[in-house]
Amino acid sequence: MTRFRHLPCLVLLSLSTTACWRSKPKLVEFEVLRTSPELGASAQPLLLNDSVTVYFSDALHALSVTSDAISVLDAEGNQVPGSLRVGANWVTFEPRPPLTASLADGSFHPASRYRLQVAGYPRPDAVRAADGRRLAAARTYEFRTAGLADVSPTRPAPLRPVAELPFVLRNYDLAQPLPADAPRLQMHFTLPVLPASVSPDAFRIQRLGSPLEQLLPRSIRVITSRLDDFPGSTIEIDLGTTPRRIDGGLCSLRKDDYVSVSLSNVTAPLLDYAGNAVLCTSDPYWTVVPGNSVALVEWPWPGKDGGIVGDDPVLPGFEAVCGIVRPCVRVEAGDGSLGVFRPRADTVLQPGVPFDRGDGVLVVSREASFPFLGIDIPAGIKVRVEATSGPVQLLSCGSVRIAGELQIAASSRPLQVPRHGTAVQELIDASPVAIVAAGGVTLRGRITLATELAGDHTALTLAAASAIQLLGEPLPYNSILAVEAAWSTVAEPPIVGLRGQVATTVVTFTYGMAPACQWTARGVSPWRALPIDRDGGVLRLVDVEDGLLVQWQATAADAVRVGEPDLTPGRVGRVERAADQDLIQVGTGGFVRFLIEAELRSGGPLPSFRELRLSDR
């Protein structure tokens, strides 16, 4: 019994030791280490554009950093505007620099007192560490800003130079557009402009013409542009709706006038924060355009189609007619019930006989008619049309492209060219083989006949509501080419290329959709470059009807091919939906294109629009 006498004491000692080992370690407090620059009553005053950085003892929980958790207050207790930038274990308060000569419009005012507050325990909105710990205690730092008396010969204002760069006016090779009814000139510099150096004497503004007219600005101010590398690096000169001449008279800006600005480097030079005068290699100039805004991109633009194409060129798209963009649809082009014909192997089209339209789906004609949504015969593919038993029609709700061979086996008929303005349906009914497109027809391959023609006979009619481009071999003898009568009002020729010995005529189509059909019409504009001094604009949709989906897409300029968009996979931005008055951000010197789409069905409305415009305001 003696050897077990001390056992209870040993057990208690062991349990006590184990409890000590299992106790939670004491957490290290989360606290502020320092500020940069050092703040306090004895510290040097801050310049008006100086940032303040607070460093913490551990990594930060970024979402806990708010304008309430870290704020700067003035002497009256009002919160000072500025932005917060968060790092791994630091937060920087960045003030807004002053842009006026008084220096009283920035975050910090000259010769004023402020305090920096960092919220800590017990406030629920205290700054937190990444592991959730709250700042152990709130911190407050008093500081003051430099006054106008604290300047020196190397610093003409209580502002800190932002970079070791030359102070240069950014110039452009081409004249920038200037709206006649709201002429505001913007000049962009590599560094912030000292507001006190901005005066009318620093600029010589002229309307170039005979005679030259020197103009007086209505106002001049320093602003921050989206194109600036640093805040306050742009000067805006407002001439007013009716600019005044230096002699007191009025000047009227007209379309195609030029306006130039010269900078004075002697009597009243523009300065940067370090007191350096601006370097200007050449005078910037602007060309006057009508209106109160600058159209950066317009669609459609002058031309036979305004640059309207589809994402798939043979599918139904849009057309520009008499200043209106509308779906390109025609009743005579069929209902598109057979889908897109894009054969992958040699194919025979014979009424009543099933065939593969190119995607593994077997379809059959509607009696003697082949109503396709689009026709695309690739190079190296031969399609034979059997029409020896009677007339055959190949119809396309979109366009027709033939890069391979289309062979026609048909019983010919005497050639009878209809008078101008005849309904296209009459021509179709009288043709052994008719190819009809609501869009255009492009021939890069060849169309051949399986049998010889009599001298006064024809076997083929090619009818299009848009242009016919003959870029391959000449057409069979006595073919009839028919284009819509609307082409007679267009300056560009409706038929381009080698025709051969053919007959041409103008016919009328019926605008609309055939019964019992439904599909989606799409249109895409070419890529258009923004002016070099713009990175976006405001979208204006002119006379857009309901039912039209408008989208846009942007990409940067190609680094190698000058003046071309960068279409490398992964570099092109995603397609974004757009509405009237939307602000579209493209990027400086970037490219943009518009996409339109409409769900169409027979008997329903056919939406249209007059113009899509990207303006500077």
Describe this structure in words.
The protein has 617 residues and is mainly beta. It has four domains: 32-150, Immunoglobulin-like, CATH 2.60.40; 176-292, Immunoglobulin-like (Sandwich); 330-508, no CATH class; 518-615, no CATH class. 4% of the residues lie in helices and 35% in strands. It is built from two helices and 48 strands. Strand 4 and strand 5 (90-95) form a beta hairpin. The longest helix is centred in the N-terminal third of the chain and has 16 residues, at 7-22. The radius of gyration is 37 Å and the shape is elongated. The termini are far apart. Mean pLDDT is 87; it is low at 1-21.
**Averaged pLDDT:** 87
Residue ranges: pLDDT <50 for 5 or more in a row?
A: 1-21
Number of strands: 48
Strand order of the largest sheet: 24-27-32-36-38-40-31
Question: First CA to last CA: what distance?
Answer: 101 Å
Helix content: under 10%
Q: By helix and strand content, what is the structural category?
A: mainly beta
- Give the overall silhouette: elongated
Could you give a short account of the major beta sheet? 7 strands, parallel
What share of residues are in beta strands?
A: 25-35%
The count of domains is: 4
Spatial extent as radius of gyration: 37 Å
Helix count, DSSP H or I runs of 4 or more residues: 2
